[in-house]
Amino acid sequence: VTVVESGGGLAQPGGSLRLSCTVPQVTFTLYDISWHRQVLGKERELVALVRSVGRETSYADSVKGRFTISRDNDKNTWYLQMNSLKPDDTAAYFCKAAHRTWPGKYTYWGKGIQVTVSS
Fold this sequence. Notes:
This protein is mainly beta. The chain is built from no helices and eleven strands.
């Protein structure tokens, strides 16, 4: 299974970007999906998550009120809308889909998208 990511790039402080991720050939409704980010030399951190059941969402404190995670089950796709971007948001962003029952066996990661926030 190959995860396809898109979006990212360069934005000015206060600007917006949207990331997308698609995972084909899986029963998407059975997967918890999330976005993570990593700065070189630091650990990867969870940015946002939406569960497969109940659509429960959670966000890192640093992005609450600015980022929104969403999913389109008809397209096997999920998104991260990033508004009011700050230079501290600069990182490589990774999408992840984890099976809600067997995450150890069925977890898929994207290769990462660079987001740079700079004037």
